[in-house]
Amino acid sequence: MAREDIEFTAQGATLRGWFYPAADTVGSGGGETPCVVLQHGFAAVKEMWLDRYADVFSAAGLSCLVYDHPGFGASDAIPGTPRQEIDPWQQVRFIQHAITYAQSRPDVDAERIGLWGSSYGAANAYVTAAIDRRIKAIVGQVPAISGSQHFRELVRIDNWAGMDAMFAAERAAIAGGAAPTMIPVVAEDPSAVSALPTPDSYRWFTATAEERAPGWRNEVTLLTMEYFRGYEPGKYLPLISPTPLLMVVAPNDRLAAGEIAAAAFETAAQPKKIQLVAGGHFDAYTGPGFEVSSGAARDWFVEHLLTKS
Fold first, then answer.
1. 41-50 pLDDT, tens per residue?
2. E strand or H helix at 95, and its extent?
3. pTM of the predicted model over 0.85
4. Strand runs (DSSP E) across 106-214, as ranges?
5. Are 274 and 265 in contact (CB under 8 A)?
């Protein structure tokens, strides 16, 4: 289906993305259709495979809203905040703004809104679904569950005290008018300073940017990492019910540890389902992993947005 370039404004910032109309299938009704809101993970932009998920969902009779987070890709930063800074609570608020925009469209059924997120976006989706009952079905794949646990796994213990000092100095410098310090999202040398210091992160971001998102920027603010360490989205999993929850987990995920996600699934209440996908964190986006992750999400949204009264 032909997609539409869209934009909406909230908190003084204009966010940009795409709207995919639902294909004319059973359940779409030919008028107002269910809509799935899709948002990406840590530092990623919509061109990094989200269009493929939207194509799958659209073909099943679901309209889709895909957008870039504030300060990333085509979207503006909120006035007074820097670009390339990942504040998860800011992103959660803008998911809610995106839902409001979707509900305002005459081609969307405002009572049938789904939410999809991947990686950090899955974490955001869990939090949003727990606090916003406009969401009627949620899918989060290869999710970040605990910032403190993931931080301990990704950052060597002998660097923890130094990072505390860096965060404190950065806050003092910014209060004094300095520009934010930037660090790479990924680096070829996993021992070098970067936000995601794993070899598969470097391969995926660099290859995907070259192939699909040449405007992607390999940098985030230093305070992004402090926000990440303090973010505990797994605490919200028990609060999502009665909204139907699907978790797509890669047991061999070493970036957002798969075993942490699988254990967190047990804390959620029904209705819920877990779908395992082979490989590591980034295998969900391409090849057989994409067929599994997109197919499971499509079926979940069809069941809970199209076929349920």
1. 999 999 999 9
2. helix 88-104
3. yes
4. 108-118, 135-141, 182-183
5. yes
